[in-house]
Structure to design on (415 residues):
């Protein structure tokens, strides 16, 4: 949080069919439907999240990610970062308060990787869903499906990794927590964090700009990951891979697809990062193990299927 | 139950029996065949693109970045969103697990 950026705040995803998407994200993942707007966008969140929403779904004729937003500590930080982003060479767009329902003004920019990111300081806080703020119980009754606790991070495929790293570390105050280096020492994957998590956003080198690999949601335990796997089978949801463990970040994980082909992950556990920690390095000759620690084999679908 | 529709994938010569209401890709996976590469199974990633050679199909929603209106008119479609209405023939566009150069160009 060196530059006042606190955490991932929201992700807007495009879906081909809103009804099918809501069945997936609400009934299967267990996100809470919080609101809708006059553009037809639907606002969701995990039950532990304090802010009103963290996932926005928009119906469109191609799936993928519209943008990923990070919350900053205050409006002064937003003003300062707007100038620093412009000085870095980003075109900064201003979106007024209320353009996302319940969210304050946002600034939007495109990273060298080709992805759109946003910063905002204010969002309506509705508190954890189903538990009171005073003397809160352990968890709420009535959660659905996987009972995803929060939107956690996403993995993006794109170009210009070095410039993107410079933007996120120098301007936005992220740290490089983990990386994959090829045999020439070139970084082909970078996992960035703005707090203690192993990643808040990650990038993998890819010839095309701005592609989306997955959005990830946090579960409490390995038992919950196995239960998610059961639900994926029960609902005939398109499975990608898992349950398994990653070498990178050591998270325990399962991957699957939403009905529009956007990849989702639910995971638990994993490494932590402090700003004084050197990056954890995996070498590309061990990439199979780095990605799926048990299989230890490169999985072509996991590497190439994107929206 | 009516008999399954027989779909010939011309590149491999494999025949996939597709139950009414089932997608071509799901039927292929159910029968353990691999003549069409499998991606997201949701019309989003473009990996399972095929060219329709003959026969009639219902289409589900597909990403316009992989099959636009013009390509659809030329008979291109994603097998995960193709529901055969009778016996038919298709050609897989790519190698299993890899997008064709055509697909990469379309989506860039």
């Amino acid at each position: 949080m060196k530059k006042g950026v606190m955490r991932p705040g929201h992700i807007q995803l495009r879906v081909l069919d809103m009804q099918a998407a809501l069945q997936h994200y609400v009934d299967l993942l267990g996100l809470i439907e919080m609101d809708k707007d006059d553009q037809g966008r639907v606002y969701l969140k995990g039950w532990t999240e304090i802010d009103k929403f963290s996932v926005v779904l928009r119906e469109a004729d191609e799936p993928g990610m519209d943008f990923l937003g990070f919350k900053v500590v205050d409006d002064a930080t937003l003003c300062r970062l707007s100038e620093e982003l412009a000085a870095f060479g980003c075109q900064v767009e201003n979106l007024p308060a209320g353009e996302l329902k319940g969210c304050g003004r946002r600034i939007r920019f495109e990273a060298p990787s080709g992805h759109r990111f946003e910063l905002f300081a204010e969002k309506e806080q509705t508190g954890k869903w189903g538990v009171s703020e005073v003397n809160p119980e352990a968890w709420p009754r009535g959660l659905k499906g996987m009972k995803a606790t929060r939107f956690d991070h996403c993995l993006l495929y794109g170009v210009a990794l070095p410039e993107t790293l410079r933007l996120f570390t120098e301007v936005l105050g992220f740290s490089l927590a983990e990386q994959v280096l090829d045999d020439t020492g070139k970084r082909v994957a970078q996992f960035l964090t703005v707090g203690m998590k192993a990643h808040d956003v990650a990038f993998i080198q890819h010839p095309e700009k701005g592609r989306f690999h997955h959005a990830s949601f946090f579960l409490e335990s390995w038992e919950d990951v196995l239960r998610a796997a059961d639900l994926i089978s029960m609902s005939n949801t398109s499975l990608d891979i898992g349950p398994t463990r990653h070498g990178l970040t050591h998270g325990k994980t399962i991957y699957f697809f939403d009905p529009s082909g956007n990849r989702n992950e639910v995971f638990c556990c994993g490494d932590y990062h402090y700003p004084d920690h050197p990056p954890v390095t995996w070498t590309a000759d061990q990439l199979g193990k780095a990605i799926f620690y048990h299989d230890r084999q490169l999985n072509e679908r996991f590497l190439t299927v994107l929206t | 139950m009516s008999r399954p529709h027989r779909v010939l994938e011309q590149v491999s010569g494999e025949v996939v029996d597709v139950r009414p209401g089932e997608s071509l890709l799901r039927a292929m996976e159910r029968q353990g065949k691999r003549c069409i590469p499998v991606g997201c199974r949701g019309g989003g990633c473009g990996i399972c693109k095929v060219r329709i050679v003959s026969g009639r199909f219902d289409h589900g929603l597909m990403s316009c970045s992989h099959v636009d209106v013009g390509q659809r008119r030329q008979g291109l479609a994603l097998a995960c969103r193709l529901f055969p209405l009778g016996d038919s023939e298709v050609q897989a566009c790519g190698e299993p697990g890899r997008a064709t150069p055509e697909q990469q160009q379309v989506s860039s």
Remarks:
- Residues 155 and 202 of chain A are 5 Å apart (CA to CA).
- The interface with chain B takes residues 16-17, 61-64, 207-209, 238, 240, 257-263, 300-301, 304-307 of chain A (CB under 8 Å).
